């Protein structure tokens, strides 16, 4: 495989339904806690997870995309409808990829990655400070769909993107250990996340190894939110392959499944709940 930042054809610089478990009715349909201005990327701010039931496993690895990543973003009708600024996003991705050519860490990260995979990772981390129309939010909203119709729409709109994205993530070294993620609606989470309960969000989840990042995501409202302390084995550190590398984001796959491993507890003035990732084939490229 050729580097996503190197020369040649693999260059990243080219242009170019069932629900097995209960849902969380207390969270579903509610707006997330309003956030004041923050230095934390939107992906790491509080966001409700409306479903925790098992998600059908889509075979993204079996797809055979016929377009390169940027062409797919620019021409797929579903993506264009979901992300009206997709042309600007694609231009940002191209520019960011060119800059990574001069980043030694990024070159190491992409040694086994082609340009489409690199650009898919960059696309996911792109955000312009608003939620509506952000690629990662629109993608995750579709990934949370449990209905047959919703899963079919997901495949039509995001199938090729997911193929490139998951393939790219599979080329990164696994991140293991403890990560943190803040969730709003503490009381609703405590009511549903019972000790021993299996959990699957079904969407990509942004976490951080720094507890302080999770605390910052609360924007000072630590009484109505909760920090999940998650022991993982298959996270992916995006590092320089992000528009916000300073937060050292650890991304969890939609296929990740967890078990709640503690009741809620209070530490340093914050409420915590522990979860442990279960073993599974998350990246099969």
State the main characteristics.
32% helix; nucleotidyltransferase activity; EC 2.4.2.31; secreted; globular; transferase; alpha+beta; 8-stranded mixed sheet; Toxin ADP-ribosyltransferase, Chain A, domain 1; 285 residues; 9 helices; single chain
Describe the structure.
- This protein is α+β, with helices and mostly antiparallel strands and 285 residues long.
- It has one domain: Toxin ADP-ribosyltransferase, Chain A, domain 1.
- It is 32% helix and 16% strand.
- The chain is built from nine helices and eight strands.
- Strands 1, 2, 3, 4, 5, 6, 7 and 8 form an eight-stranded mixed β-sheet that branches.
- Strand 7 and strand 8 form a beta hairpin.
- Helix 3 crosses helix 5.
- It is globular and about 50 Å long.
- About 11% of the residues have low confidence.
- This is NAD(P)(+)--arginine ADP-ribosyltransferase.
- Keywords: Glycosyltransferase, NAD, NADP, Nucleotidyltransferase, Secreted, Toxin, Transferase, Virulence.
**Per CATH, what is the topology?**
Toxin ADP-ribosyltransferase, Chain A, domain 1
The level 1 CATH classification is: Alpha Beta
CATH superfamily: Toxin ADP-ribosyltransferase, Chain A, domain 1
Q: What are the segments in which pLDDT stays under 50 over at least 5 consecutive residues?
A: 7-38
Radius of gyration: 18 Å
- Multimeric state of these chains? single chain
The CATH architecture assignment turns out to be: Alpha-Beta Complex
Give the termini distance in whole angstroms: 13 Å
Number of separate helices: 9
Class from helix and strand fractions: alpha+beta
Averaging pLDDT over every residue, what do you get? 82
What's the β-strand tally? 8
Helix amount = 25-40%
Biggest sheet overview: 8 strands, mixed
Sketch the topology as an H/E string, one letter per element. HHHHHHHEHEEHEEEEE
């Amino acid at each position: 495989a050729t580097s996503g930042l190197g020369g040649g054809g693999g260059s990243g610089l080219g242009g170019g339904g069932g629900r097995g478990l209960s849902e969380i009715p207390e969270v579903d349909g509610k707006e997330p806690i309003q956030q004041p201005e923050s230095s934390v990327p939107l992906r790491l701010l509080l966001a409700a997870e409306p479903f925790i039931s098992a998600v059908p496993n889509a075979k993204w690895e079996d797809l055979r995309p016929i377009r390169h990543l940027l062409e797919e973003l620019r021409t797929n009708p579903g993506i264009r409808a979901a992300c009206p600024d997709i042309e600007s996003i694609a231009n940002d991705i191209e520019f960011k990829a060119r800059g990574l050519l001069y980043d030694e860490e990024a070159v190491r990260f992409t040694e086994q990655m082609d340009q489409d995979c690199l650009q898919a990772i960059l696309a996911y981390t792109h955000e312009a400070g608003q939620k509506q129309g952000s690629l990662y939010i629109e993608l995750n909203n579709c990934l949370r769909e449990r209905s047959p119709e919703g899963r079919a729409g997901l495949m039509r709109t995001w199938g090729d993107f997911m193929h490139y994205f998951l393939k790219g993530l599979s080329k990164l070294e696994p991140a293991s250990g403890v990560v943190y993620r803040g969730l709003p609606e503490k009381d609703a989470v405590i009511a549903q996340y019972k000790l021993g309960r299996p959990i699957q969000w079904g969407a990509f989840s942004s976490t951080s190894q720094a507890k302080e990042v999770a605390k910052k995501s609360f924007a000072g409202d630590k009484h109505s939110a909760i920090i999940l302390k998650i022991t993982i084995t298959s996270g992916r550190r995006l590092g320089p392959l992000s528009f916000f590398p300073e937060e050292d984001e650890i991304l969890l796959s939609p296929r990740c499944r967890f078990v709640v491993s503690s009741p809620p507890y209070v530490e340093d003035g914050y409420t915590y709940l522990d979860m442990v990732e279960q073993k599974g084939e998350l990246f099969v490229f």
